Amino acid sequence: RLLEGMIIAAFAVGIGTAVVYVRGEYERIAGRLRDAIAEAEAAGFLGRGIFGTAFGLDVIIHFGAGAYICGEETALLESVEGRRGQPRLKPPFPAVVGLFGAPTVINNVETLASVPAIIGRGADWFTRLGQPKDCGTRLFGVSGAVRRPGLYELATGTPLRTIIEEHAGGPPDGIAIKAVIPGGLSAPLLRADELETPMDFDSLAKVCSMIGSAGIIVIGDRTPILDVLAVTARFYAHESCGQCTPCRIGTSWIHKTVTRIAAGRGRSSDLDLILELTGGMKGRTLCPMGDAAALPIQAMVAKFRDELEQAVGR
Amino acid sequence: MSEVKTVTLTVDGRTVRAAEGTNLLRAAAAAGIDIPHFCFHPAFEAEGSCRMCLVEIEGLPKLELACATVVREGLIVRTATDRVREARRAVLEFLLAEHPLDCPICDKAGECKLQDYYDAHGRFPGRFVEPREKRDKLVAIGRGLVLDRERCILCTRCVRFLRKVTRTGELGVFERGVRAEIGTYGDDPVDQRLLRQSRRHLSRRGHHRYGLPVQDAGLVPGTASVGLSALRPRVRRRRRVRDRISPPRCSRGCAVVVESVTGYPLGPGERRVFRIRAGENPAVNGPWICDLGRAGRRDIDEGRLTAVTDKAATGGTVLWRKAVADLAAHIRAVPGAERPARIAVVLNSFMTCEELALARRIFKEGLGLGGVFIADPPPGSGDGWLLTAERVPNARGVLEAGFTPRLPDLDVLARSTGILIVFGPYLSGNFPAGTAARVLSPVAVKYLFTSRAVPDDRLADVAVPVAVPAERSGTYINVDGLRQTFRQAVAPPQGIPSEHEILVGLAHGLGLGVGEPDAG
Predict the structure, then answer these.
(1) Do B37 and B53 contact (CB within 8 A), yes or no?
(2) pTM of the model
(3) Which is higher by pLDDT, B248 or B443?
(4) Is this prediction's ipTM beyond 0.95?
(5) CB burial class (10 A; 0-12, 13-18, 19+) of residue A233?
(6) What are the residues of chain A with a beta carbon less than 8 Å away from any beta carbon of chain B?
(7) Interface of B with A in 75-114 (CB under 8 A)
(8) Distance between A29 CA and the closest CA of chain B, angstroms
(9) pLDDT one-digit tens code per residue, B20-45
């Protein structure tokens, strides 16, 4: 489906070369993709003169070196060009100046994979799925405190609670849901009383979060929020590319502060400090990574302030 | 000529006109509104990484980078709102959190944007209580270049300079996040060796370097915003800055800024001029100068001839006016008809157009001399960029004044000449060591006007110290025929005249009506 979507997109725009960017760690996935490309080439769906037309397409698999930032479209381009994965200043946007200076279409794999079905069954079929403004399906990857973690393709707008409880089997016995991260680590987390939120752009925006990658992480009541905060802070400090000041120092400072709190040396001013540091990053960085780090951390501190106050004060 | 369109925008309520395509930071600066910045350098595209130049633009929700915003008609910009101030304060706090507080022993202190901006936009108490990252200090990254990774704020101007200007690319950013640092690839030092390869037509030995444009710190050559690469500690006191003089070590005529200490008596070994750095002249050198030009400061304060030496004089100080009057008397003693054969003059291509014009009136038109020669230092090798093979600043001025650049034949000179007048310390150097002094010893009267103490000074009976180009004003014509006027950058030491003063004094002594010197 991905390859089909890529072929259709390339045909529509007039592209002769397509690149699938795969994280360096995902060798097994890349192997499957390689097989699929070989099959498609053997069947004449890829390469020159597809279906006897003048149109041709080559698909190249490019491995990253394991950097979160390379999911940012311009850092991804840098990485494909063989350079250090750092975001570019925009504008110009990739559609104007992209890979090796050429106009470039960049889409998520999930987006491209939904193209064949839309073409095949028609736009009406697609828009009837999910929400009117945010139609179709999403792949919800559910992990954390649930009985059946896994990947569920569901219509957009499915309430978060339905996904967790009906599809993923709900939390294991004796564990209650404390919070849920609805769309990957960069999506601000939701409290248990916000689980009725439908999983689509607008509904999540209303609760100050986002659907993001639709990676749902369920946090049980036995998990201290400080641990979640510590993991998040460490992740962003580790993944910041270091190019721009607020993200480079901000993520590290927050990480150091949270580490100190976790070591039992918290200060009463620490939570306000963390909020102020996220404020210094939000909207001020070169790429969206600053927001991706600032927003979830802000939400954790704001929504679980009481619990964190206890952790700081113990 | 293509017409440059201008657009009108508003910055802090002021109407600013700027050429289309200018970035907001430069447009504002031209209107006298300084938008703080670290990573932006006029020679490079916007990098946008320091985040210091964020400003408010009407109609846009977020703060925008002044360095990456191209001016548009009707743009309304605010650079001093609470939001902008808050953003600057936050960037400064981030930078200072991981920055050592060793200003009292930092070479950059006093001309450091981090200090200046903290003073203007920061003034917050420190609240970073975490352990600071341990980083390497005094990392030797190339000839004369020392990197202090604790002081470095990763403006990456040095990296971009080596990638985009010299195209040698010896430096890169390594690691990521807070551990990101500047470094060389393996053990390959910064020496811009590839400069020669990429500009093959001038590949010779003795290639030479361009300074990294560290935030005008002119550190060695300098590009880093803060605390990068000091060649060696400098002791600096007060400074004053004059610009637009050409470092006269080649014929490019780059704009430079001469920084010197004033107001204090100098101790032994101290130099008035502590730095020459690039000025900016888009028509000649852009914002760059080469290391040879920087090192030109040595010519100003080192190896100077400081007093008149007169072999005939017995004790006491000889004033330059007395020496010039004596010379005029010697010349007057030669009958007019014999002068062309008996008097020879050696000039040089460091003399300004004004001085050369005066020399022409005195020696050619006034005295009718035929023996007027030019002695210069030998050519070096150019680098295909700024540095020219010609190591004199005004060879074209010499031609314009009607002189033929030729060296005298020493033997011919020795046989016929009674009076030899030499300007500049370069005559002896054009012959094997000691030759000039030996061959010319029969010449009865020999005057040397020089800024430098020449080892071979036995040549002259009377040596008179003169000002170096940085101590003079005048006009040079550069390698491309561009006529540039420069102003005095530092005052000559007490009692040391310029060649212009010498020539005027000589003209008066000879009763020649040279009138006022040429304008300029």
Answers:
(1) yes
(2) 0.85
(3) B443
(4) no
(5) buried
(6) 67, 69, 84, 89, 237-246, 248-253, 256-257, 260, 267, 269, 273, 279-280, 283-286
(7) 87, 90-91, 93-95, 97-98
(8) 27
(9) 999 999 999 999 999 999 999 888 89
